[in-house]
């Protein structure tokens, strides 16, 4: 028991020394220098007349009741019966240009706001103008006008940051005002399903409601992230916070200032992850790249002769090791430029030239919408193919799944009755018998899986699915 206790004490002592070997003795000097650059932001929305009329009647209290004072104060009943205070959002921001008064924050802090106000460190409240905002990265740029000198902070190199590096976060948690917290970078390149360009920095520094839009600093006092989200079952900090990396935010912010909106590159493809099974079925040496699941008609990819089932391995000289890297790489490419795309097709690498178009223009023209078919198919008994545990039937020109073995991999891969099979092993399918022949041929060649192009319920949102064959 004594030996165990000694070892435990030694371990704790060793960790204590190690943990305090690299950080500064104090963050006070750094905090004092940076605090003036961080602002509090409040935004309000007006309550329209119709909303007020639909509100339930408020309760009446006896004269002199303390509850009466509460409602008089917070709902302004003395002057406007049945009125309601405007919904308010509190957040943080930071000055990036002291001369022009530009401030960066999160889009969700000022979204749908009728009025936005910026509160400086000396508590002066100023009305702010929204210069531009971007929902996809949750960023926004504001501008204020004041005769007082502002303190701006520069962006740093977020790509140079490593897991374990110390960081400082400053913000407005729960509306308390300028608050400093410190921690380390817990992880990088986190995908929290917040948008198409997720690449968050994770930190254990205390970040709470109201910290949104505040800066994450390195020890040089450079902004390497914008605090955006937390993971918490309680709503408070549990040591898991997320920040948009500065290297992702900087070009977006520059576009918002220059154009009032974003201008992203667009390729005109919908992509999906390349799994080990998909890589094997296409004879790709390893699972990498982004698989083209569908192509927008008349879009850049179609004009460059890319096809469904191609796997994009490199774009504009930048390797694509996994699917989520492609959207950001394309978005950051100059609109109108012609770039080289390396892709995998028919068991070998190929190249093509693509002229990058503008994403926002494609959205305005409705090119990103998918055709839908809300009519549920009337399923009939089809041809049973034991190797994949499914039955297929020809219905209105499509090969439709009419039955699925509940113990099959098709069920595990979330295929459902009514899904349409467009291709098998990148060959168009016109009959259930043809589908069976392709599957049998693959089995005889020793293939362990096949690649299906599935159109779920005929909605026009196709995806590739690799299915293992029963042995």
Question: What would you note in describing this structure?
Answer:
Helices cover 21% and strands 32% of the residues. It contains twelve helices and 28 strands. It has helices spanning 2-19, 28-34, 49-53, 66-75, 107-110, 246-259, 276-281, 300-303, 325-331, 359-364, 409-412, 432-444; strands at 38-44, 88-97, 102-105, 115-119, 125-127, 129-134, 139-143, 166-171, 179-190, 200-203, 215-217, 223-230, 241-245, 265-266, 269-273, 290-295, 311-315, 318-319, 338-345, 348-355, 357-358, 383-385, 390-395, 398-404, 420-424, 427-428, 449-455, 463-468. Strands 5-4-1-2-3-7-6 form a seven-stranded antiparallel beta sheet. Strands 8-9-10-13-12-11 form a six-stranded antiparallel β-barrel. A hairpin with a 2-residue loop joins strand 17 and strand 18 (318-319).
Topology summary:
Layout: H1 2-19, H2 28-34, E1 38-44, H3 49-53, H4 66-75, E2 88-97, E3 102-105, H5 107-110, E4 115-119, E5 125-127, E6 129-134, E7 139-143, E8 166-171, E9 179-190, E10 200-203, E11 215-217, E12 223-230, E13 241-245, H6 246-259, E14 265-266, E15 269-273, H7 276-281, E16 290-295, H8 300-303, E17 311-315, E18 318-319, H9 325-331, E19 338-345, E20 348-355, E21 357-358, H10 359-364, E22 383-385, E23 390-395, E24 398-404, H11 409-412, E25 420-424, E26 427-428, H12 432-444, E27 449-455, E28 463-468
Antiparallel strand pairs: 1-2, 1-4, 2-3, 3-7, 4-5, 6-7, 8-9, 8-11, 9-10, 10-13, 11-12, 12-13, 14-21, 15-16, 16-17, 17-18, 17-19, 19-20, 22-23, 23-24, 25-26, 25-27, 27-28
């Amino acid at each position: 028991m004594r030996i165990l206790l000694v070892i435990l004490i030694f371990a704790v002592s060793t960790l204590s020394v190690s943990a305090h070997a690299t950080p500064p003795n104090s963050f006070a000097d750094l905090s004092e220098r940076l605090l003036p650059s961080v602002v509090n932001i409040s935004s309000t929305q007006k309550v329209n007349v119709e909303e007020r009329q639909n509100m339930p009647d408020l309760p009446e209290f006896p004269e002199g009741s303390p509850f009466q004072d509460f409602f008089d104060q917070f709902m302004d009943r003395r002057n406007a019966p049945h009125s309601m205070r405007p919904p308010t959002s509190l957040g943080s921001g930071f000055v990036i240009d002291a001369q022009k008064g530009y401030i960066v924050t999160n889009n969700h802090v000022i979204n749908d706001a009728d009025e936005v106000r910026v509160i400086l460190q000396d508590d002066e409240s100023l009305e702010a103008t929204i210069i531009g905002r971007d929902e996809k990265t949750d960023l926004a740029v504001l501008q204020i006008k004041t005769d007082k000198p502002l303190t701006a902070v520069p962006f740093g190199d977020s790509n140079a940051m490593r897991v374990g590096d110390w960081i400082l976060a400053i913000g407005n948690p729960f509306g308390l005002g300028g608050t400093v917290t410190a921690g380390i970078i817990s992880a990088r390149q986190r995908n929290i399903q917040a948008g198409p360009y997720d690449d968050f920095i994770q930190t254990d520094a205390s970040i709470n409601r109201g910290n949104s839009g505040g800066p994450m600093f390195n020890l040089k006092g450079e902004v390497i992230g914008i605090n955006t989200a937390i993971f918490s079952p309680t709503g408070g900090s549990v040591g898991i916070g997320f920040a948009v990396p500065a290297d992702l935010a900087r070009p977006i912010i520059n576009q918002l200032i220059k154009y009032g909106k974003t201008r992203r590159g667009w390729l005109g493809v919908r992509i999906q992850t390349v799994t080990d099974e998909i890589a094997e079925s296409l004879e790709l040496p390893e699972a990498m790249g982004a698989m083209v699941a569908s192509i927008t008609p008349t879009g850049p990819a179609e004009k460059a002769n890319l096809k469904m089932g191609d796997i994009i391995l490199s774009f504009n000289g930048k390797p694509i090791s996994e699917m989520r890297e492609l959207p950001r790489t394309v978005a950051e490419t100059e609109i109108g430029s012609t770039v080289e795309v390396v892709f995998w097709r028919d068991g070998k690498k190929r190249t093509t030239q693509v002229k990058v178009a503008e994403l926002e223009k494609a959205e305005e023209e409705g090119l990103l919408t998918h055709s839908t078919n809300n009519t549920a198919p009337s399923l009939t008994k089809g041809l049973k193919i034991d190797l994949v545990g499914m039955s297929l039937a020809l219905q209105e020109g499509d090969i439709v799944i009419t039955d699925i073995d509940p113990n099959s991999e098709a069920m595990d891969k979330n295929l459902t009755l009514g899904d349409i099979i467009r291709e098998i092993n990148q060959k168009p399918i016109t009959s259930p018998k043809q589908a069976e022949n392709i599957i049998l041929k693959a089995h005889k060649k020793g293939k362990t899986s096949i690649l299906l192009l599935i159109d779920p319920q005929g909605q026009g949102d196709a995806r590739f699915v690799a299915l293992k064959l029963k042995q």
